[in-house]
Design goal:
The protein is mainly alpha-helical. The protein has helices spanning about 5-15, 20-35, 40-50, 55-85, 85-105, 110-125, 125-140, 145-170, 175-195, 210-215, 215-220, 225-240, 245-255, 260-285, 290-305, 310-340, 345-375, 375-405, and strands spanning about 20, 430. Strands 1-2 form a two-stranded antiparallel sheet.
Amino acid sequence: MSPKSVVRLRQAAKETVSGLPRAFWWLWISTLVNRLGGFVATFLAMYLTVERGYSATFAGLVGALYGLGGAVSAVVAGVLTDRLGRRPTLLVSQLSTAVTVAVLGFVEHPVAIAVVACLVGMTSNASRPAVQAMMADIVAPGDRVRAFALNYWAINLGFAFSAMAAGLIAKHGYLTLFLTDAVMTLLCAVIVFAKLPESRPERDADGSAGDERATGLGAVLRDRRFMAVVALSYLLASLFLQGFVALPVAMGEDGLSSSDFGLAIATNGVLIVAVQIPVTRFIEHRDPAPLLIVSALLTGCGFGLTAFAGSVGVYALAVAVWTLGEIINSPTQMGLVARLSPTHGRGRYQGMYVLSWSLASLTGPLIGGAVIDHFGADTLWAASAVVGVIAAAGYAALGRTLRARPVEEAHPDTVSMDLDRGLKDVPVVRDADTVG
């Protein structure tokens, strides 16, 4: 690499991380720590089918119960995020997740596994509305796509490590995976407790009771453009989740091991770590609708390609294709959700958005497991390609409504807002070396 290229790369990296508040970086660090130990959700299906000897249908049922727990907590946690605050919701979620994940490693009866998996889904998913609402609180509107991309980058940096490490650790016992996950979640809670103040914006002096009604769940459900985003998110989430539920089962049927799956799925995290930031710099200020259309088509094509896989290399190639769709979709869609969310209803809006993923976690495993058991994996991958095309058409229709009625920001500058308990005039990171 030439000296000029090195200079340009350093400048691009500096521009990517500069101008974001210090609180964002502590939230970013807590996300990274949490994902470095995020073993259980990734390897739960393989743990049940390979280690415990259960069928793909049972693994799908447990995954569905995990999603059911997440669906319940998404809405409840969204309301709590607005009413109690972001920080209390985060702490309760992380502490309870550590306990339930540890318990899941010890239970053996199928009913107990199913019940505890539901509790894990409930506790772990409760943090997502709070994290995303806090990020929208502390980051200026023009920087949100970049901030969401950086946070997603942290998730996948941790995931790339955990996916590769977990396959090796599992050879020495899956219990180690569960306990390590619990310890890392506790460490994440410590970071939140020690470094993150509350970020919920203060309400008006009159108590803003009308604002509370205006941003209730009924108002969220009546927001047609936002609910269209939720529905399309559900379709793509259903596809992405097959990479962690149906894909390991299909690879197991092909005679591949947990280490092979770890290597193939690590392509997802490694690719995101490698190209998420430059891709985000390209898409940051572009019209979201065309980007979302492309992301849906890439996702459908990637999962469709899985039908032709039989080796780790081809599985990894298929993962790479749908990962490109994920790289474009995630920050673009989360930025759009933040733009559509009113200031004092962010928790509820984010909770409803998280619900789309939770419902996908509920139905996706059931559908994936049942289709594999009754029709074979190739049928599932062909259907996934069709779903990708349908989602692309939906994003095209959504784009027309966004152009007809442009989205207005809820407020011009969140950084200068008066925020609860110590986030007024949040210190801003001006250089990558000052992070933390």
